[in-house]
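Q: My labmate handed me this sequence with no annotations at all. I'd like to see what the chain might look like in three dimensions before we decide whether it's worth expressing. Could you predict it?
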Amino acid sequence: MLKFPALGRDARVNALLGAGHFLSHYYQLCLPPVFIAWQQSFDVSFAELGLAMAVMSASAALLQTPMGFLVDRYGARPFLVGGTLTMALSVSAMGFATAYWQIVGLALLSGAGNSVIHPADYSILSGSVDAGKLGRSFAFHTFVGNIGFAVAPPATATLSLLFGWRAALTLVGLLGVPVVLTILWQSRLLADQRRDRPGPAEPAISGARLLLGRSIFLFFAFFMVSSMAGAGIQSWLITVLHRAHGTPVAAASTALTGWMVGVICGVLLGGWIADRSERHLFFVVVLTTGAAAILLLVGIVPMAELETVAVLFAGGLMAGTSRTPRDVMVKDAAPPGQIGKVFGFVSSGMSLGGAIMPVLYGMIIDAGRPRLVLVVVAALLMASLLCVCGARLRFQRPIVPAAAE
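A: Here is what I predict for the chain of 405 residues:
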């Protein structure tokens, strides 16, 4: 009889949390493929269609920090289960909507459920996974989220063509139910972060004081400024290459894909590095500087199509590799028992950064300066290093490894 090898505890924890994280990213991009069908069904404008995405993103961003406080106080598992179930059933219920305002309300609920994922997952990973493997666990967590982003548009579009948009959303939403049931079944594996009580001479730091302290606030700024740079690549790279260098749209799209594939591969490489070196800041600085230099080069120097793809893949590889050491630095800066609120707070910086810059980049292109977009992106990446270096220098607490159970 064929016997499959048993998965270790760390692997099962990673698989459970990875499945939920995959869905959280999938649900964020499963709506655009049905926009045209919604326009026909509900007779709404494109601006109104964008409202559903804006409401989902805004609710997730605004609630991440409050959810982090709740995770730290009451434990991550009940919020993980509730949040995953809420975001899944909200998407599924969209398939039964009879008016567009119902879609917007369900998007709000789905975003609220999504807001739990980062603070809950990082809290559980820090308490459940062996400290020597934590970098690879963080990397896998980020990797499956990126896969969710990549899979959502083509998969949802295909299901919509085959079965209609209502059946497609109902089906993809119901995928969350077996994930929730599996988390409940295997919940004994999911240990919360360690909570150390302060000694008599160490008064507890309030949550607000912790988050607004120099170190954590600079990490928030680092995530925000990095996301401001990333918005220029994800939203405008195709347009910039086409307008600045005359690159065909198909080739420019391939170049963006090259960047994204490099990021995904780099995330896994970064996990390996984070577990084998404590020089996390060094790697973040070197890799981010390299990625900024490549983007500056692409923005200024015309290249052949194949060269552009290859160079942007290398830049994406550097950017992706820097992400896991970055996440490990944030985890190390969080006092025991405070990981949920810290990751919730800094993750909201990513959402804020992604909302600030797209319109400004569009204005630069409208002004006839498309090359300047990647110059600004490179400058923002370098500015983000000032934030992370300041955060790391202000962080003086000895690193306490996560508890392994």
